[in-house]
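Lab notes, practical 5.
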Amino acid sequence: MNFIESLSLSSGLKINKPFIDDLFFPIIFDKYITFSTENHQSKQWDHLQECIDILKPILNNKGINIIEIGDNNQSINNVMSLKGVTKSNHWSYIIKKSLVHFGPENFLSQLCSLFEIPSVVLFSNT
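Output from the prediction step:
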């Protein structure tokens, strides 16, 4: 018996898939990938802008855009940034329609797992 089954048995609650209530956010792109960063130093990648600069022309040729979501202070060029205008329910809606997500291990990477969205998750030393 695993931990979830034990909790279910002792509490009388059913085991079910978690859910989050999405909140619509208008995205003008049909195809896009998402990424995020975090303010925590150990979850910041020094080469993120270089990665975006390499990916941008390749994705543009395929009609795919790059959208930045999350809540942080890092500034990234050549992407559509939705930081500060979106919150967790918006992120859920946006990630559900994303082709791929990349970023640190956090709430957004957990959403990708929930919605079975392919993702590249960068783990840190925290």
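Observations recorded by the TA: The CA atoms of residues 53 and 78 lie 8 Å apart. The first strand starts at residue 32 and ends at 35.
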